[in-house]
Amino acid sequence: MELGLSGKVAIITGGAGGFGAAIAEEYAREGVNLVIADIVIEPAQKLADGLTQKYGVKAIATQTNVTQKASVQEMADAAIRAFGRIDFLINNAGLIKRRNVLDIDDAFWEQMMTINLRGAIYASQACIPYMADPQYGGQSFGRIIMMSSSSADHASAGMAIYSTTKVGLEMLGQAISKEHGHQNVFAIFPRFGIAPTAGWDFVSYANSLGLTYNPDVPDDAKRVVTEYYAKQLPLGRVGTPEEVAKLVVLCSASVMDSMINQSLNAWWGRG
């Protein structure tokens, strides 16, 4: 299927690893130019250079702290300096940590809400004015992808705050679509199920789920958590970052116009 994305420009927050890196590569495969924004610049720059060499797109890296408004604004400004336009914003930066309700303290609350939700607000505020302004190619096509989760539908043990941030992302996306739809800027919020990345805190997952693992064996917590979830899925396996990336890129295309301002469940068969 021809998605018609070649030559467009995407910003990916948290773009240097995990879902972000997979999304960046899938966009590059479609001919999309990239801003890979990450708090750690070295892997972001390495990824940008590699995608440019492999796919012939233009990709830049920015050192972006999504908890700092000025840093996020510079990310958007860098995209305009490099490309003159912003077509897609993927609000991907985030933390996934488990903590049971009675163990939640102010520091945990602040960390999760600031990175997972405030960061998306800052990024949206920085990019929407460019997306909507005809001077920068706006009012033609703009999509904001809110990286949501099955946790926005149902909170499991230990996921109260994470689930709250994901519901917040979806409500942010709905408001953006209603406030800026007349400028052809819309959000869509795919809800991803179990697709582990290196960023998962597998130890906190295992502890919260009551799973037994050997702390002296590298990645044993990852093994038991992955096996636990794989057994619950009809496919008999968890998802992959590459599968996530394909759906994100698809959500950027006009073929998905019927899904704008909605959640889209990608749970690998889990009901």
TrEMBL record:
Which Pfam families does the entry link to? adh_short (PF00106)
Give the protein's recorded name.
Answer: 3-oxoacyl-(Acyl-carrier-protein) reductase
User: Which family, according to the similarity comment?
Assistant: Belongs to the short-chain dehydrogenases/reductases (SDR) family.
Organism for this UniProt entry: Candidatus Moduliflexus flocculans
Which GO MF terms are attached to this record? oxidoreductase activity, acting on the CH-OH group of donors, NAD or NADP as acceptor; quinone binding
Its lineage reads: Bacteria, Candidatus Moduliflexota, Candidatus Moduliflexia, Candidatus Moduliflexales, Candidatus Moduliflexaceae
| Entry-linked InterPro entries | NAD(P)-bd_dom_sf, Sc_DH/Rdtase_CS, SDR_fam
Q: Which UniProt keywords apply?
A: Oxidoreductase
Q: Which GO terms describe its biological process?
A: fatty acid biosynthetic process
Q: Which domain of life is it from?
A: Bacteria
